[in-house]
Amino acid sequence: MSDAMPCKRLLMKRDLDLWESSETRAHLVHFIEQLADAVRGRENEQYDLPISASVEALMGLLQQVRGVIERHPVAKKDAPASRFGKVEFRDFYDELRAESASLITGAFPQLTQNQVRQLQTYLEESWGDKRRIDYGSGHELNFMCFLYGLTAYKVFDLGGTDRANLVLKPFIEYLKIMRVLETEYWLEPAGSHGVWGLDDYHFLPFLFGAFQLSTHKHLKPLSIHNEEVVELFADKYLYFGCIHFINSVKTTATLRWHSPMLDDISGVKKWSKVAEGMVKMYQAEVLSKLPIMQHFYFSDFLLCPEGVSAPDNVDRDDDGCSTLEPHMGHATWGDCCGIKIPSAIAATESNRQTNRHKPLPFD
Amino acid sequence: MNLDHTLELLRQGKHIPEETVYSLCLELQELLINEANVSYVDTPVTICGDIHGQLHDLLTLFEKSGGVEKTRYIFLGDFVDRGFYSLESFLLLLCYKLRYPDRITLIRGNHETRQITKVYGFYDEVLRKYGNCNVWRYCCEVFDYLSLGAIINNKIFCVHGGLSPDVDTLDAIRGIDRKQEVPHEGPMCDLLWSDPDDVETWSLSPRGAGFLFGKNEVDKFLHGNDIELIARAHQLVMEGYKEMFDGGLVTVWSAPNYCYRCGNIAAVLEIDDQLQRNYTIFEAVQPQDGVGNAIIPTKKPQMDYFL
């Protein structure tokens, strides 16, 4: 694939079917399962020693992401805005995007220029959508792909301490940063199912968290209803940390009302069953859902399965909500997988003319 | 079907038998098929925004705004998805429509479609409550018959989302064949998906459907159709309502503390005989354990992952 940038390819049901039976997907699922298995029975702080230089380097990179947030505080006075999110998130995103290549090179100087190019899309897309100022499990998946890519490039070694530490160090730090972004910039839940989703923003901390608890002698899935237990274990186990966060955001009702899915799952007898179920659910509800996977990027370490649709359009344009007049200066051409493709405006126009595939709308 | 009994069950968030939903939906289709794409409504009338399955809040809405026995209502759509009681909220409105056909106008929102409800919760809710999706299917059949808009005293245009570059006149809306799943583009899609914004001209919407439109488009539409206000919903407003473009457009939002997390208040807009605007705001009611739990069935398909 050489120097092509990562790009989106899953546009319709047929593509999704090819994706579901692909080796790429199987490898990605296996990667997540390996990490999950590695934290079985461990508390957040029970990482393996020594911590590799690569994990430390990634922690340093994440520290710099925090720095970017700090440089773009939300203005005190509330500008009138029709949407819920804070527009300063866009400045954060722009700076992160401008810096992403140097952040990666700085942390991992051993990577080639092309490897950095492959990785940077995933890092940039890990924090939410710039235009809509929202975040969901699809963005979270990008961070997993970033870790997957670094592992594919032999930066991490799953044969050693990295295996458990990837979750307990960088993933937990990523989650902490996401909490800051979610609360600072009021990120909207992307494609929220409201009470009918597992969580407004995340999936993987529930998955990893259930594995952490799967050997616990006393804590039961039902314990999420006990506020004292939740508070006590919020910093020790990802699953309880998530419940704690939800409780702190949704104060006017109990889990039974605002999170019926988590309520259902709390009825499962054993955490080990919850853990197994989370893997199945992740595959069905995230990796097999077109509204999410239409935004998934393929690259030279996450190969696009044979036969799926050719790249359709670029929706990484920076212009925000451009006008429809092509002469207004927005009709630039992007480069994706080596194929010249039109900008979003031109793509919309051509979609209109040829009635080609249109991505599922967001709401 | 005993309408009063069904209404009573709905107000308590209790289970409605599948056959009842079936016959209710059938009757509603027969009723709605005779309504125009743009319904005529007289003042005084109360305009309500998104509900999103927040049944308790919908009951508060009726309580705070006079109730359906005394008041005429227009609902701007998005009855379902995201909330715990999408089904009950929608059925309650259908029952009222059946009981008081001239007092309730139901406009279609962008969530009243098969594709969107499969993604954003209503489908999952029905599956969880009934163990199959029949009831969802019946409701979707009704969605196809909902009006696209309403016009109050020929002066106030009501729609879920907003304007469309393909629609200059109300007659253009009257010409649409509405009895279908909402298309991915074109005038019917735009009416349900578009948003007002601070833009010079028609612009792409970040939603991926519909358009953004600005003061120019609103002024042109108001002038061209000799109307003075566009009332729409579709976007969360922290204060419950928000007027834009020198009062030429208003967004009304009727789901307080949306999704239990937004902390917003809700509003309805009453239009009196002089076309004066009176806003009533209301807050979320606290849901309680032990109320409505009877509807949670033993069949929970999502749980299959964890068996």
From TrEMBL, chain A:
InterPro entries: Phstyr_phstse_ac, PTPA_C_lid, PTPA_sf. GO terms for cellular component: cytoplasm; nucleus; protein phosphatase type 2A complex. It is found in: Cytoplasm. Keywords: Cytoplasm, Isomerase, Rotamase. It comes from the Eukaryota. Gene3D superfamilies: 1.20.120.1150. One of its GO terms (biological process) is mitotic spindle organization. Pfam families: PTPA. Coiled coil: none annotated. GO terms for molecular function: peptidyl-prolyl cis-trans isomerase activity; protein tyrosine phosphatase activator activity. It catalyses: [protein]-peptidylproline (omega=180) = [protein]-peptidylproline (omega=0). Its EC number is 5.2.1.8. PPIases accelerate the folding of proteins. It catalyzes the cis-trans isomerization of proline imidic peptide bonds in oligopeptides. Belongs to the PTPA-type PPIase family. This is Serine/threonine-protein phosphatase 2A activator. It comes from Huiozyma naganishii (strain ATCC MYA-139 / BCRC 22969 / CBS 8797 / KCTC 17520 / NBRC 10181 / NCYC 3082 / Yp74L-3) (Yeast).
Automatic annotation (TrEMBL), chain B:
SUPFAM superfamilies: Metallo-dependent phosphatases. One of its GO terms (cellular component) is protein phosphatase 4 complex. Its cofactor is Mn(2+). It comes from the Eukaryota. It holds the Pfam family Metallophos. SMART domains: PP2Ac. One of its GO terms (biological process) is meiotic recombination checkpoint signaling. It catalyses: O-phospho-L-threonyl-[protein] + H2O = L-threonyl-[protein] + phosphate; O-phospho-L-seryl-[protein] + H2O = L-seryl-[protein] + phosphate. One of its GO terms (molecular function) is metal ion binding. Gene3D superfamilies: 3.60.21.10. Residues 107-112 form the Serine/threonine specific protein phosphatases domain. Its EC number is 3.1.3.16. InterPro entries: Calcineurin-like_PHP (IPR004843), Metallo-depent_PP-like (IPR029052), PPA2-like (IPR047129), Ser/Thr-sp_prot-phosphatase (IPR006186). Keywords: Hydrolase, Manganese, Metal-binding, Protein phosphatase. Belongs to the PPP phosphatase family. This is Serine/threonine-protein phosphatase. The lineage of its organism: Eukaryota, Fungi, Dikarya, Ascomycota, Saccharomycotina. The gene is KNAG0G01650.
